[in-house]
Write a structure and sequence with these properties.
The protein has a five-stranded mixed sheet. The protein contains three helices and five strands. The chain is an alpha+beta fold. It starts with a strand and ends with a strand.
Length: 97
């Protein structure tokens, strides 16, 4: 079953390689979607793929890379419209909003 999840990650998640970590982990799992920094200091991501792979990816996002510290991860069901921001197919890193 394919699912879409929309994440908002709080903590020390900017300037520590968090977006690159999410991109690498998502591609390794064959997920579609995108990740971007937000001006409020959070990182936002949309993940689409097989439910078990997405759940595993969310666990990875809760850990983050070595230098990150995740204090909270908000998630909700995503939509196909949420995916529209990405550039092309697969997984994208988007500009800061």
């Amino acid at each position: 079953m394919t699912v879409v999840r929309h994440l908002l990650v709080h903590g020390r998640v900017q300037g520590v390689g968090y977006r690159a970590f999410v991109e690498d982990e998502a591609r390794a799992r064959g997920l579609d979607g995108w990740v971007r920094n937000r001006r409020d200091g959070t990182v936002e991501a949309v993940l689409k793929g097989e439910a078990e792979r997405v759940a595993d990816m969310i666990k990875a996002c809760q850990r983050g890379p070595f230098s990150a510290w995740v204090s909270a991860l908000d998630q909700r069901e995503g939509t196909e419209a949420d995916l529209a921001a990405r550039s092309g197919d697969g997984f994208s890193v988007l500009p800061t909003v």
